[in-house]
Fold this sequence. Notes:
The protein is of the alpha+beta class.
Amino acid sequence: VHPNVSQGCQGGCATCSDYNGCLSCKPRLFFVLERIGMKQIGVCLSSCPSGYYGTRYPDINKCAKCKADCDTCFTRNFCTKCKSGFYLYSGKCLEKCPDGLEANNHTMECTSIVHCETSEWSPWSPCMKKGKTCGFKRGNEVRVKEIIQHPSARGNPCPATTESRKCIVQRKRCQKEGKGKKNKEEKRKKSNKDESKETRQEGKGRAARRQNREQRESNNKTQPKKRKAPNKEQDLAPADTAQ
């Protein structure tokens, strides 16, 4: 260390020298040596740079280097991010993941193998042919299932999610577009017409019955009442008695 030690330092240094830079740091700052060519310069930082981890002591806070395969670490034996070509697993950097795990090239970590998961089959669809459900005898019906969990790189792949099979239906003719509505309209008009006809017929029947009744009443009023014929036995009874 250069003998010329200064107390009026800048950049967070408590003591420094012109040759070595910071010799000690102010409270809560970390001391770390930075290499510049063949020379090392002491600096004081609020947090340790990449590849270092911080340790606090009563007299000084220092930044120590992580392992060679570790990019950032919490302690020397616990890495939080590995350098290129290594996979992180339980705080360690590995070239190859253990059995039962797979390498995730996106996160550069060893992760559990995930297998495909699917739902149950749906009910079979209506029997169809060329998108129609009529005009044919033999067609196809389909059922599907949904993927609930996609597999990872080494996981079991998903099975087929669609199944099709032949089907037979009772052949029926297809109605032309708009023909069904037209038939319904015609049936409705015919029904209304029949109802009107029945209503008119009922009206005529009631009118005819009323006319007949009025005719009978009129005849009864104009026709003289018939006298009852005398009872011969009653008329002869007094005479016979007198004899």
